[in-house]
Design a protein that fits this description.
CATH topology of the largest domain: Rossmann fold
Number of helices: 11
CATH class of the largest domain: Alpha Beta
Order of helices and strands: EEHEHHEEHHHEEEHEEHHEHEEH
Largest sheet: 6 strands, mixed
Number of domains: 3
């Protein structure tokens, strides 16, 4: 892990990491670029180009970008080239692939306009706030967001004993600590309608990345996907990798890890829980475990539980099964969330 630097320009504060493990060492919110060591030189060059290009745009005057690059000291321009993108006019109703038309977008004004529209759509970043305003996200997302919202200022402190490089002495400095993580648990067992579990899975990866959360999938076995490894979380393969029965053995082994502390656990499930007797390819006839004994086994520290129990037909508050071994300071029960999914 290192800070990206340029000999020509002052680059924005961006760290370059080459392993997923290094990401764990970065405070939440600190910008970084992930890549292989041989990519560093090209990434720095790309940032240099972008800085120069943005400065030229701000001037408001026409400019020759190649000339500006040479004047800035970029003399190795042999590989610098530009090819016009190709616009593909493909009509889905045509089954004959010979009907696909290829042409240079600079040759036809209409094609260029279509390509510009496509390019804007494909590079757009849509934030959760925008999706919420469009009313295409569950109403209970606000409850989750309120629970896991973190004020990053609470994790910035001044350490008087820190060495100050600029002043060359122990004059103190700012330290940034990582805020506590959250946890999302999805029960994908067969007792839960697949339409419900698959819909929640579709939300899970976005929620986990947005709310700094690990993901725990419980089926015939339990698998924990840490925040740093969410890129390996394949929603399409979850059912085949974890099965659709219920687990005790893997879950019990996971929760005995005393190093895990979570701000909130968002648990989707039904009455089935790890304390019951289970027998499948991953659980060789487990024994029953009471909630009291389960809480003694569980070493995870969880401040709050949000329970999304599938039975919301009565006014009684049910705790999602795989939250029964936790000992949170507060538990909140979400009602009518199944009704929302059925709309």
């Amino acid at each position: 892990m290192k800070l990206l630097k340029s000999e020509r320009f002052t680059l924005p504060t961006i760290f370059f990491v080459t392993t997923r493990e290094e990401i764990k060492e970065l405070p939440l919110g600190l910008p970084f670029i992930y890549g292989t060591p041989d990519m560093e030189k090209n990434i720095v060059r790309l940032l240099e180009y972008d800085i120069l290009y943005q400065r030229a745009l701000k001037s408001g005057f026409p400019f020759d970008f190649k000339k500006l690059l040479r004047e800035a000291g970029f003399t190795d321009m042999q590989s610098f080239y530009y090819s016009n993108p190709i616009y593909v006019d493909y009509k889905t109703e045509d089954e004959d692939y010979d009907e696909i038309d290829f042409f240079d977008v600079t040759d036809k004004k209409s094609a260029s306009e279509k390509y510009d529209t496509f390019l804007k759509d494909s590079v757009a970043i849509v934030h959760l706030d925008v999706l919420k305003k469009l009313n295409i996200l569950p109403v209970w997302l606000d409850t989750i967001e309120e629970t896991v919202r973190t004020n990053l200022h609470n994790f910035v402190s001044f350490n008087a004993a820190t060495y100050n490089k600029k002043l060359d002495g122990m004059y103190g400095g700012i330290e940034v600590m990582s805020p506590p993580r959250n946890l999302i648990i999805n029960d994908i067992s067969g007792s839960i309608p697949k339409s419900v579990s698959s819909t929640i899975l579709a939300f899970t990866k976005t929620l986990a990345e947005t709310f700094y959360a690990d993901v725990l999938i419980t089926g015939s076995k339990s698998t924990l996907y840490e925040y740093e490894n969410l890129h390996n979380f394949n929603v399409d393969a979850v059912y085949s990798e974890n099965g659709m029965d219920n687990d005790q053995a893997y879950f019990k082994k996971l929760v005995t890890d005393s190093t895990r502390k979570y701000n909130a656990a968002i648990v989707f499930g039904d009455n089935h829980h790890p304390g019951q007797i289970w027998s499948n390819e991953y659980n060789k006839r487990t024994r029953p475990i009471s909630d009291e004994d389960g809480k003694k086994l569980c070493k995870w520290e969880i401040a709050k539980v949000l329970s999304f129990h599938t039975d919301t037909t009565t006014k009684k508050k049910y705790l999602a099964g795989y939250a029964r071994w936790f000992s949170p300071m507060k538990t909140e029960y979400i009602s009518d969330w199944i009704t929302y999914l059925n709309k």
